[in-house]
UniProtKB/TrEMBL annotation, chains A, B:
The protein's name in its UniProt record: LacI family DNA-binding transcriptional regulator
SMART domains reported for this sequence: HTH_LACI
Organism: Litorisediminicola beolgyonensis
Ranges annotated as spanning the membrane: none
PROSITE patterns linked to this entry: HTH_LACI_2
Pfam families the record matches: LacI, Peripla_BP_1
Molecular function GO labels: DNA binding
InterPro entries, sorted: HTH_LacI, Lambda_DNA-bd_dom_sf, Peripla_BP/Lac1_sug-bd_dom, Peripla_BP_I
Boundaries of every HTH lacI-type domain copy: 9-63
Native organism taxonomy: Bacteria, Pseudomonadati, Pseudomonadota, Alphaproteobacteria, Rhodobacterales
Keywords: DNA-binding, Transcription, Transcription regulation
Listed SUPFAM superfamilies: lambda repressor-like DNA-binding domains, Periplasmic binding protein-like I
Amino acid sequence: MPPTPPRPLTLRDVSEASGVSEMTVSRVLRNRGDVSEATREKVMHAAKSLGYVPNKIAGALASQRVNLIAVVIPSLRNMVFPEVLAGISSVLETTDLQPVVGVTDYLPEKEERVLYEMLSWRPSGVIVAGLEHSEASRAMLRAAGIPVVEIMDTDGTPVDAMVGISHRRAGREMGRAILKAGFERIGFLGTKMPLDHRARKRFEGFTEVLAKSGIEIADQEFYSGGSALAKGRELTQTMLERTPDVDFLYYSNDMIAAGGLLWLLEQGIDIPGQIGLAGFNGVELLQGLPRKLATMDAGRREIGETAARIIAARHDDPEAEYEHVVELTPKIDFGDTLKRW
Amino acid sequence: MPPTPPRPLTLRDVSEASGVSEMTVSRVLRNRGDVSEATREKVMHAAKSLGYVPNKIAGALASQRVNLIAVVIPSLRNMVFPEVLAGISSVLETTDLQPVVGVTDYLPEKEERVLYEMLSWRPSGVIVAGLEHSEASRAMLRAAGIPVVEIMDTDGTPVDAMVGISHRRAGREMGRAILKAGFERIGFLGTKMPLDHRARKRFEGFTEVLAKSGIEIADQEFYSGGSALAKGRELTQTMLERTPDVDFLYYSNDMIAAGGLLWLLEQGIDIPGQIGLAGFNGVELLQGLPRKLATMDAGRREIGETAARIIAARHDDPEAEYEHVVELTPKIDFGDTLKRW
DNA sequence: GTGAAAGCGCTAACAG
DNA sequence: CTGTTAGCGCTTTCAC
């Protein structure tokens, strides 16, 4: 006799095995309504021993409810996003909602596809990184009729709600701190920015503040792809060869800043006596470097938590009032590489 | 007039807007069967202008097909797993399959919950990290009746198929290389291993080879949690204070090895003249360190690609023959910290 | 406390 | 090439 084809079990199977109607089995399995202890046990036993796994597809279709929250981020290879995710998960774990992650590789067209794909599963909410989306993406989000929280950035107008920091302001603050510390020949090193809007905004805020003090960026250098730590070394070397008299280097993220730091120390350059340094993000990695790098913590975990809390609250009560704009304040950390005294 | 409640659009709406039957609309939207160019255009136009997003829940229930592949990994905070994911995605992107990620935090009970949750969406396949699962998890995987590929490790018996490296063998090879280079007072530093089975297996293979040469681990030190780079420093310092005469340090991963390297260099210790070093994983980060750290590349990307390829092939043809065991060969990279000459 | 009927939005299968 | 019919497996609703 050939083995039974592995047809997935259905409620009916559990119903037959337990001698209880499908409806009651369903009630037991969902903990809904009153069921006598006797039948509950019969059902549980049958379900367990059969190894029944409910079909959420059918359940979702029938109930018009899906406990999924779509989370759309540019990348998983940048530690920033897993940290946001951790914040989201920690909050959603206290509810019956579940995050589902989609990755866009920083490409608006891919973001559009990913959103379409995810929305077609009718999630109960969307958390998406950034405020810059294609018009079609915005339209989809609006039309979905579900809570949408855009995160990480507040320099712009959200489709629905946004939680994050102002990167323009962050750039300005770092600029002020650097100027206040007395640095004047300042170089900027970062990713090529056409698609990294947040880095661009920081850059804009940064140069704006310098300009107000009549200072211009002494030099700048951009990269894309590759190991960030190694790139940080390369960029730094290139810049120092071209502009040896810089007294400060502002990096668009901590990883390239760390690479720069290591390279500069190897060259015997005094940090921050000779050259001051600052990065952005406050990544955990920094804890192990030879110098405590100045940085700015964007509060990624908190952003994730807050966004998830908004989604969860609106899931519980769609009519509830909620903050459409939550702007967090990034904490500047001077470390050992920004103060000269 | 109050705004229309945002009822999600259905096929029927597109059907009415285009004057074409639901069935034909469905055909157009899925590119199935022959449809005249005229009606195709009518339908496409209607769908676009309405902003229709198909309901995959209903589609999946009706067609009994779900294009999702469940990917279950222990963590996103260890770069290793995003890299595996990248391999999986790169292959699945050439198909109509889509990865959905679940994270277990290295906890068997959470793995069980995550698997249950994911299987209840009836995915077309499962890729899960590791071979160690609860009996209930294995039972679920077997009962699901879908392709299951366990990845990263081949020291054990898979539920269905497995793709990875033998960590015991990896540990043995590294042990042999270290002995061959003439090191004798060898310390081991790593994660607490009860739940990190792969690290444990490497450790076992490693000590086994040393034992054959009559050598015992000179000292060992374990950690859990925290910034790996900082932990690497601490562990290394602790060990050197306790056992100053070690001539080699074998770390269970590259991040703590990097921390150790930085600390040792700061102490003015000659690497590898005085102390040799090796890590594990071949993470990109290493490219930017002051010394090229010896390591072993587990071929994470390739593992992901291979697993995805097996799943995709079996999705195309469930009857197809396939490799149940794919053991890849990790490449040892001597870097600058393992050879003494 | 339990059950029967209807239907969620879509697609397989079959007619024309 | 296009339409009709009958479910997919579950939950909602209403009876009992």
